[in-house]
Every structure is written in C-alpha cells, then in structure tokens.
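Here is one such tokenized protein:
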Amino acid sequence: MITLRPYSEADFCRTLTWIDSYRMLVQWAGPIQFSYPLTIEQLRHYAADIAAVQSVRRVFAAVDDTGTVCGQIELGALDLFNETATICRVLLAPESRGKGYCYQMIRAVLAYGFETLRLRRI
C-alpha cells in the first residue's frame, strides 16, 4: 500500500540517483525547467517554488508499506479557482518498477485532489 507525504529536501539525493540520464530527465520533467545533469541547486529552486504560498503544484514522495520511498508524483497546474489540476512528474525508483506502485500513486494523488482539495477535474 502506497502513502504520500510532502516531497522535501531529504528526498533530493534519491531523485538525483533516479534521474541518471538526459533521457530520464526529459521523460520525468521535459526539457525546460531542469537541465542535465540534475543538481541539488535545481531541486532546491523547485522545492522553493513548491513551498510558495500560492504554489500551483503539490509534490509528494510515495512511501511503500515498509516505509521505503519508492517514487514521487506531482499534482501540477493547480487552479483552485477553477478546481482543476494535472498529474505530472511521476517517477519510480528503478527497483520499484513493475510492482503496481504507480497505479497506487495515481489513486492516492487523485484522492488527495478530489477529497482534500475538492477539485472537480484532474
């Protein structure tokens, strides 16, 4: 069972090891906001944006039932006025792939969006 917790600086090193190529970076985030190789400084800037009072994103670390962080997921383009958002920047640890965790992460972030934020469309 996957649970979500807010993404934090404690997760940066993990993200850096999961993004091990330009191709993986672009697959995760596209070619605009980040550059390869991904750095702690880029992630600090990203985290500062997440923490902004009027942030348009919520980023989560996904934790499996053993307490291991196995992925991360973002609810982005968050528009509370129009009650909409998108799911983006989904990333799984290489050793966690093929175990159904992504499906559980999607379900958890949808529950957060619809139940906690009261969105009407994701």
Summary: The two ends are 22 Å apart (CA to CA). The longest strand covers residues 69-79. The chain is about 35% helix and 25% strand.
